[in-house]
Specification:
The chain crosses the membrane at residues 21-40, 52-72, 78-97. Keywords: Membrane, Transmembrane, Transmembrane helix. By secondary structure, the protein is mainly alpha-helical. The chain has one domain (19-97). It contains 4 helices and no strands. The protein has helices spanning 2-9, 19-39, 44-71, 77-93. The longest helix is centred in the middle third of the chain and has 28 residues, at 44-71. It is globular, with a radius of gyration of 15 Å.
């Protein structure tokens, strides 16, 4: 989604938000891609790094999106609910990727 937003509105497309949040969400275009690539790697230690990066991304994204929804702008509740559910999935399954 972040790549689509950048393609549609240019660099730092979230103009309704403060620059720090705008930069964070734009940076997720790269961080999400890196996490996905690491999760697909064959080496368990690299997959674990991808899992930890995914966890960090989801915790920070849900926290920031919740803050923005409460205090700055009306973000879609459905999207935040899906993100929160995915965070729960990551938390519940991350232990399966931990290298032995």
């Amino acid at each position: 989604m972040h790549w689509l937003d950048i393609a549609a509105a240019g660099w730092l497309p979230y103009r309704f938000a403060p620059l720090t949040f705008n930069a964070y969400w734009t940076g997720l275009a790269f961080a999400d891609l890196l996490a996905a690539l690491l999760l697909w790697h064959r080496r368990p230690a690299i997959r674990w790094t991808g899992a930890l990066l995914t966890l960090a991304i989801m915790i920070s994204d849900v926290a920031i999106n919740s803050y923005v929804r409460l205090y700055i702008a009306e973000l879609p509740l459905f999207a935040l609910t899906l993100q929160s559910a995915f965070l729960g999935f990551v938390i519940l399954t991350i232990r399966h990727l931990r290298p032995e």
